Amino acid sequence: MVILAGASPDRSLQAQELAETGAIPAKFLEQILLLLKRADILQSKRGVGGGYRLNREARNISLADVVETVDGELVRLADAERYPQFSGAEGLDSSLKQAEEAVNSRLRAISIEDVIKFGSGEVMAGAGI
After folding, report:
1. Is 47 left (phi over 0), alpha (psi -120 to 50) or beta?
2. Beta-sheet strands, E only, within 31-79
3. Mean pLDDT of all residues in 111-122
4. 63-71 vs 26-38: helix axis angle to the nearest 10?
5. pTM of the full predicted structure?
6. What are the phi and psi torsion angles at 124 (to 5°)?
7. CA 34/CA 53 separation, integer angstroms
8. Contact of 36 with 15, CB cutoff 8 Å
9. Of 18, 26, 63, 69, which has fewest CB within 10 angstroms of its CB?
10. From CA 123, how far away is CA 129, in angstroms rounded?
């Protein structure tokens, strides 16, 4: 997503080019690209000059959008129903839930555009960094 967001808005990138640039196995990436396309985060075009591009502005795509599309849910650390009961179990569950909420809140707050700006040394104002 960051590679696509950093490309010229009028340019589509082919899956192979994205795989090489991101050092991602092509077959694995193709599956991810299809999920992102089905979620209307990406658009694709076949043929000469075809490939993938963002379907929305990078500032309107959060890291949470991408994680939920690819993984089905955001970070999940706590599941008290699966833990045995022992001294400190409630505290552990509460601590994990707080960490989970903090991480997921950040994923919702940071856009793909923020990631690019942060990488160029700019501060992520909207994301609180």
Report:
1. left
2. 42-45, 51-54
3. 86
4. 110
5. 0.82
6. -85, 85
7. 12
8. no
9. 26
10. 6
